[in-house]
């Protein structure tokens, strides 16, 4: 995983909207998490315990970010993935807020906050990483909806 700031490779033009446009398009909770780097309460999000097959898109812009193949049960209260869908779909920012030292994960296409990634927690996944992502940042698209 590359973790320097602004690591991204997108295949489409980046989404650029004003704060007013984001506020108009997103619900208050979506705006708080996606645009203000908030966090939803654990065990309350739509996807924390979902095992449905499909692709997880960014709720703000629709970019494909994760798949159900990389989702696993970490029992942390948020959806957990061991890798993004492809290199460049997310970007990483060193986050030192709230007295912690961690890596924030954002959508590479619209710069919306998704969650954080943690290394070396011993989950036994192929990458030994846990992408801890807010449900409200995602939209699950089932294979038949593609």
Biggest beta-sheet profile: 6 strands, antiparallel
At CATH's second level, what is the architecture? Beta Complex
* SS content category: mainly beta
Question: If you average the pLDDT, what whole number results?
Answer: 89
Shape: globular
CATH superfamily: Peptide methionine sulfoxide reductase
What is the total number of structural domains? 1
Give the percentage of residues in beta strands.
Answer: 25-35%
Number of helices: 2
The ordered H/E elements are: HHEEEEEEEEE
As residue ranges, the low-confidence spans are 1-11
CATH topology: Metal Binding Protein, Guanine Nucleotide Exchange Factor, Chain A
CATH class equals: Mainly Beta
Strand order, biggest sheet? 3-4-8-7-6-5
- Radius of gyration, in Å, reads 14 Å
Span of the ends, CA to CA = 28 Å
Question: Helical residue percent?
Answer: under 10%
Total number of beta strands: 9
Overview of the molecule:
The protein is mostly beta strands. It has one domain (19-145): Peptide methionine sulfoxide reductase (Metal Binding Protein, Guanine Nucleotide Exchange Factor, Chain A, Beta Complex), CATH 2.170.150. The chain is 10% helix and 27% strand. The protein is built from two helices and nine strands; from the N terminus they run H-H-E-E-E-E-E-E-E-E-E. The protein has helices at residues 19-25, 28-34, and strands spanning 55-58, 64-67, 71-72, 80-81, 90-95, 102-107, 113-119, 129-133, 138-141. The strands form two sheets. The chain has a six-stranded antiparallel beta sheet with strand order 3-4-8-7-6-5, with no helix packed on it. The two termini are 28 Å apart. Mean pLDDT is 89; it is low at 1-11.
């Amino acid at each position: 995983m590359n973790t320097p700031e602004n690591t991204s490779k997108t295949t489409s033009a980046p989404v650029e909207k004003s704060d007013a446009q984001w506020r108009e398009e997103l619900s208050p909770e979506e705006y708080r998490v996606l645009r203000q780097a908030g966090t939803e309460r654990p065990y309350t999000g739509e996807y924390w315990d979902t095992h449905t097959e499909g692709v997880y898109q960014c709720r703000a812009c629709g970019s494909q970010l994760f798949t159900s193949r990389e989702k696993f049960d970490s029992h942390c209260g948020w959806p957990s993935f061991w890798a993004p869908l492809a290199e460049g779909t997310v970007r990483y920012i060193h986050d030192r807020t709230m007295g912690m030292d961690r890596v924030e994960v954002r959508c590479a296409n619209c710069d919306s906050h998704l969650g954080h990634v943690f290394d070396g927690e011993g989950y036994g996944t192929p990458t030994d990483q846990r992408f801890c992502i807010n449900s409200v940042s995602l939209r699950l698209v089932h294979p038949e909806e593609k």
